[in-house]
Amino acid sequence: MAAQKNWHILANRTAVIPYGNFFFIWLFATRNDVFMWLTGWNYTTFSRFHRCIGRFVIVLQIIHAVAHTAFELTKGGRKLLLNQYPRQHWWTGTVALVFLALLAPVSVGPYRRNLYEAFRILHAFFALIVLIFLFEHTKYFSTKSYTFNNAFLWPTAAIWIFDYVVRLVRLVLFNWKTPFSRRMRTTATYDRSQNIIRVTVDSSINLKPQPGHYYFLYLPTLLRAYGNHPFTLASWEYGSNPASEQPESNISNGSSRNVELEREASSVNPPAPRNLRLTFLIGPCRGLSAQLCNSILKSPNSTKDFTALVEGPYGCSAPLFQSHTVLFIAGGTGITPVLAYMKSYLEDTHQPRNVTQHIHVVWTAKQTSLIYAILENELRGAISRPEVNFSLFSTGTSQEKSSLDTTSSADSNSAASSEPKKIIQFERPDVPRIINEVIEDKVGSMSVFACGPPSMADDTRATIAKALRSGVTDVEYFEDQFGW
């Protein structure tokens, strides 16, 4: 009897605790997590919370199933256990447990990174099955117990519905002009030597982006309509307003009097706001980015115009420029958020909140041509700034190095190409040594921002932690997610 009672208590406790955690599992997985808005923490942090709580709940649910099975065996033996299977609370709970357990293997890092679209669809489908059968599982019990358990399930369903409603609102607001204007287009170009896709998207609203923002890109006319993937914003600009543009023929055919009247009207009524244009730099790896790259390669000049939908913005901006020294550590396409922060800094240099006196950018890339292209475009304005220093490293092949050296010497008359040549090093950087040198030379507070492969982020984080343990003060560490 004691064993039977203990099994019954264990089964009940491991049933109630997971119900209380389902709300947080769903909340921390949503794109519109209210805790991200309240705390300013990024999605990576809450994604870790989501995974940790999810694994904890799976373990508890397995213990619950084992304890309930043992309880039935000690109570009436195998015959009583077999009689339980047709009952609603038993088989619905079994189905919920099976799909809950399946969520773990389809969420492991390699599967999530290599098959992101499949992961996203299976994850949502399995979660929906779990939620439906949990509702059915508690229907068997008394009204009081049913109400108690559903007090945790209804908020879980509500937060999931809320997330999709907000996502739809973001999608509509950002793209409401797209179906009605041929000028609202998306252009994607691919450069083989740089191995990078540059995507430019016109926005329907002029909401100024912030560094650190990311957007979900939909390509309904090019790829699967349901496919979408998050990409970090690299840059933005304000283009011409399509509504205010007029064909040149209309102006040339009009009289001089009409032209004067138009000029007077334009001086009284200011021109409409220009369209916001977002730029993303995408490394073609797998999934949506690889399909996009293949589609571009089939187009002439490796350029393709198409219609895209953008959902966002998401993410938050780190207060980097409130520190006297800022150190950026980037690897590969991890330079993308750094470009957005540098653009924001160059535009808001004279803002009172910006106290930064020294910026050091450390970037490693396989393609040397990509480094040159970024320096000559997005970072052109930063090269001449005295407070900005670059440590650029290329891990490309020796053949690429020699060919680029020849090209650079031929273009020595260009200031934009000769300056980068002096600061690119063809080796792997010693990240800990660079960080320690910057810390030794810093005056006042310091912010370190990292975005790169896991090994680079781990080295940066470990170096900062070691420096803080040794007595270094006024150093803050920020990290952006390199992959999903």
Which properties best describe this structure?
single chain, 484 residues, alpha/beta, 6-stranded parallel beta sheet, 17 helices, 14 strands, 16% strand, globular
The rough form would be described as globular
Indicate the structural class: alpha/beta
Biggest sheet record: 6 strands, parallel
Count, helices? 17
Q: What distance separates the N and C termini?
A: 51 Å
Helical content stands at: 40-55%
- Order the strands across the largest sheet as they lie in space: 12-11-10-9-13-14
What is the beta-strand fraction? 15-25%
Poorly predicted runs: 242-272, 406-418
Rg, nearest Å: 28 Å
What average pLDDT do the residues reach? 83
User: Assembly type of the shown chains?
Assistant: single chain
Number of strand segments: 14
